[in-house]
Amino acid sequence: MRTVLLTIAFALCLSAADYVTNSAGVLLPDPVATPGVVRTTDAKEICAKSFRTKPFRKTTQAMKKAVCAAYGVKNCPHSGVLELDHLCPLELGCADDIRNLWPEPASPTPGYHQKDVLENFLHREVCAGRLGLQVAQQQIMHDWYSAWLAIPRKNPGSLVSVNPVDNVDPAIDPATR
After folding, report:
1. pTM, full prediction
2. Which of 19, 25, 5 is nearest to 160 (CA)?
3. What Cα–Cα distance (Å) separates residue 168 from each residue in 17, 113, 175?
4. Which of 5, 21, 28, 41 sits most deeply, having the most CB atoms within 10 A of its CB?
5. E strands of 39-172, at which residues?
6. pLDDT in tens, the chain (177 residues)
7. Is 177 exposed, middle or buried (0-12, 13-18, 19+ CB in 10 A)?
8. Is 30 within 8 Å of 18 (Cβ atoms)?
């Protein structure tokens, strides 16, 4: 019952959530409606071989409807076009909380496919000890697009591709070795 009341209260407060469009035309979440919510700052937890996000994945239909309504999106989520995404991913120790959800489009590019690449990259960097977990969380919550641009790429002049992992430098992406 408490979750339902919080969801209703959130929807009433955020009836005017708007995407923010940066200078590159990338749609970012409303920083007031979707500031991101951290669940843990313990890198050992999220880097443990046994770590899974399923125990923390608790998005209800009421939460989904409230977030979509707050952003004024009717067909939400819509497979291949728009997904309800965690601004700060569960993989980085963030919470399945209504303040961490937003309807993220696939296009314009970069969209949710490219953000997924960033999430995996940041998780690998944290677990390899090259980046602090709190730094990764703040980067993705503050401006995921700028963090995505900072990923080392094989072809620095190419920022997007049909396959979002094509441009990731294999030296920093163990999945491509």
Report:
1. 0.79
2. 25
3. 33, 13, 10
4. 28
5. 82-86, 101-105
6. 555 444 444 444 445 799 999 888 899 999 999 999 999 999 999 999 999 999 999 999 999 999 999 999 988 888 889 999 999 999 999 999 999 999 999 988 899 999 999 999 999 999 999 999 999 999 999 999 999 999 998 765 444 433 333 344 434 333 332
7. exposed
8. yes
What phi and psi values does residue 104 have, to the nearest 5 degrees? -100, 125
Q: C-alpha distances in angstroms, 26 versus 15, 105, 145, 168, 171?
A: 22, 10, 8, 20, 27
The DSSP bridge partners found for residue 131 are none
**Placement of tokens 């590019």 in the chain:** 109
Separation of alpha carbons 174 and 124, rounded Å: 9
